[in-house]
Amino acid sequence: MIGSTSSTDFAAAGRIRRLVLTAAGPVALVALSLTLIAILAGGLPQRIHLVSGAIHTEAVGSRPVWSSQPLYGTAVWLEGLLIFTFLRSWRVPSVQRVLVALSFVLGLAVPVTGVLSVLEKGDLLKGALWPGWRVAEIVAVLVAACLGWLAAGRLPRAAEVTAAPPSQAPALPLGPFQRVMFVTYMWSWRRLLIAGMLAALTAWVMSDGGNGWLAPGACGLLTLYEAAQVSTRLQIDASGITVTPRWVPALARRIPYGMVRFAEVRSEPPRQADDRADGWRMVSGKGPVLAVSLADDRWFLYSTKEAETAAALVNGWLNRERRAEMA
Amino acid sequence: MLITVDSSSAQPLADQVANSVRAALAGGQAAPGDRLPSARNVAATLGINLHTVLRGYQQLRDEGLVELRRGRTAVITGTADQVRLQLTAAAEEFARAALHAGATDEEALDAARQALANLRE
Asked: Which Pfam families does UniProt cross-reference here (chain B) (predicted)?
């Protein structure tokens, strides 16, 4: 490793607020669900009752079908999952904001739509729901997500790096009029495997028609997100470092040079190949890895046999920009 | 794949694009089956004309090094003569240095001959 980086923990600003908002979602899920059931049903109807922390419903049909919604258990499980993910992303405010948005969906939209769905299984609301309520349900989820996004507030940003890369970092000398671009491609069997598993999960969730659209929708989005990263293009040019999913170019992510301290080459990928709090990883198989030290104390890693050229180009750009500024 | 052009160079931009690919082949950074970046992407990123990039790619196609496909993508197909490519890349580097130093053709060739003789001794 070329240089040590001082820890700044820029993500501390507003983190407690985002943590509280994230944790509040499952609590609101329980509280709002019970409140709505009490209000809408004027007390629990005969066919819907609470047993051991679960809402039990008896559907009306040719034969009685019982459905159990384990409310408390689900809330505890979701709370644990959200908090675990938050702690894992302790220094990544952008992920924390997504968790807050998710928490708002769980705490605001899911109780409303869930209670309506449960009551519909009984005869209380049979036929009483507005025909377009599924559309309203989607709108409610989107509105809740937007509210959560806004409630997370302005995210802290790491200070831009102005120091030139360490002198021992490999660097490509760039002339003042030279224009350079580097492009490479990567195929990840690991991402393909994960996408396949998620697709199977989505199909399984969809096969159970009683779960509404939220769970299959979330699984489907996760599947698309993983599938999009199976094949990616890395491009380094004057604008920064850009990773573009080849099948979904709209999901391209760019690291501007202001966020980069320096680049180096590692002979092997790290053991953990997924995105973690300490870095953004696009690694596959064995072989050299481009490792870019970022201003927020994280690392961007990308597997390429041309890692040396890529690292030298990143440092070359940084040298040309920053040494000229310092001169 | 590293592609570089220098607007201050006397060498045509299309040749510079083609030379970048030849250098990658000579250095072993590119191999048959590798994709070149799309001509449109190269043109937009480097701020040069699309047809200039295509001319560079067509040079490589004429040399049997790449295959141009629909949608302006190019794939390396040629089993390039590594020695010839390395020599070409080195000669171009030397020629650039000689021009930069203001040497005449004769002076540059004399220097190259002298260097060869010294190494063979």
From this structure: GntR (PF00392)
Mark whether B25 and B62 lie in a shared domain.
Answer: yes
Instruction: Kindly report the CATH number assigned to the domain that includes residue B24.
Output: 1.10.10.10
Structure-model confidence comparison of residues A279 and B9, the more confident one: B9
Closest CA to A255 of A312, A303, A318, A304: A318
The answer to whether the complex's ipTM is over 0.90 is no
Q: Which of A163, A57, A122, A175 is nearest to B6 (CA)?
A: A175
Give the burial class of B102: count Cβ atoms within 10 A of its Cβ; 0-12 exposed, 13-18 middle, 19 or more buried.
exposed
Count CA within 13 A, CB hemisphere, residue A296: 22
Alpha helices in B1-121 (DSSP H): 13-26, 39-46, 50-62, 82-101, 105-120
pLDDT, tens only, B36-87? 999 999 999 999 999 999 999 999 988 888 888 776 578 888 765 655 666 7
Q: A173 and chain B: CB distance < 8 Å anywhere?
A: no
**Is the domain of B88 the same as that of B116?**
yes
Give the tens place of pLDDT for each residue, A66-114: 455 667 778 888 899 899 989 888 888 888 999 999 999 988 888 877 7
Q: Is B88 a domain residue?
A: yes
What is the CATH code of the structural domain delimited by A182-188+229-326? 2.30.29.30
Tokens of A61: 């049909």
Residue B5 resides in a domain:
no
Which structural domain range is residue B72 located in?
13-76
Is residue A151 helix, strand or coil?
helix
Tokens coding A80: 């644990």
Q: Are residues B58 and B26 in the same domain?
A: yes
- Quote the number of domains for chain B: 2
Of A177, A235, A305, the CB nearest to B7: A177
Contacting residues of B for A235, CB less than 8 Å apart = 37, 41, 45
Give A241's contacts in chain B (Cβ within 8 Å): none
